[in-house]
């Protein structure tokens, strides 16, 4: 079973992808993790990635696609029964290249899951996030506040609001998602079955809804 999960930043898709991958024994493929792993493994491609990242540049679509190709090819080995792609594709061009790669390696997409969350809810969710500078623990003032205001429960260090979690930055990231990533839904429409899920529900309800769809 191969699944693509799409959703705006803050929609909870990373959390859901991790939960689905555990429940259904799928490889959780996220581009951020792939890049970090490639660097850690020191493969030829990993060395390229490291020097690109070190120079502050963005890793090209071509390199990311190569990593995706390797990860999806490997995902049917061992006890994995497929994959869930999280954070890729981000553009229609990437979705098109992914089609070509999957065809080449004899795989196909079974489901596309779209997590729909109202932008105001995302801004509210993310802008209430606070991170411990020291141990990186994450809190949310709305539903998971620290015991003492502004202090980490675990190590007592000061909590900060990351640049990525500031309202202005979030709105910019949402604009990028709307302009570049959302059109993928139309690209997949008619090609695959698209499951739209209300991502504003509590985490467990979202994952139960996804589990029902996946086992249909
Ligand atoms: Zn801490």
Structure, briefly:
The chain is of the alpha/beta class and 216 residues long. The protein has helices at 13-24, 31-41, 44-54, 61-74, 92-104, 119-127, 167-181, 183-188, 203-214; strands spanning 2-7, 27-30, 83-86, 111-116, 129-132, 138-140, 159-160, 194-198. It is built from 9 helices and 8 strands.
Give a structural overview.
Helix 2 packs across helix 3 (44-54). The protein is globular. The termini are close together. A hairpin with a 5-residue loop joins strand 5 and strand 6 (138-140). The protein has a single domain (2-117, 179-214), classed as P-loop containing nucleotide triphosphate hydrolases (Rossmann fold, 3-Layer(aba) Sandwich), CATH 3.40.50. It has 216 residues and is an alpha/beta fold. The protein contains 9 helices and 8 strands. The model has no long low-confidence stretch (mean pLDDT 92). It has helices spanning 13-24, 31-41, 44-54, 61-74, 92-104, 119-127, 167-181, 183-188, 203-214; strands spanning 2-7, 27-30, 83-86, 111-116, 129-132, 138-140, 159-160, 194-198. Residues 132, 134-135, 137, 152, 154-155, 157 line the site of zinc ion. The site of zinc ion (ZN) has 8 residues, from loops.
Secondary structure layout:
Layout: E1 2-7, H1 13-24, E2 27-30, H2 31-41, H3 44-54, H4 61-74, E3 83-86, H5 92-104, E4 111-116, H6 119-127, E5 129-132, E6 138-140, E7 159-160, H7 167-181, H8 183-188, E8 194-198, H9 203-214
Parallel strand pairs: 1-3, 1-4, 2-3, 4-8
Antiparallel strand pairs: 5-6, 5-7
Helix pairs in contact: 1-9, 2-3, 2-4, 4-5, 6-7
The site of zinc ion (ZN) has 8 residues, from loops.
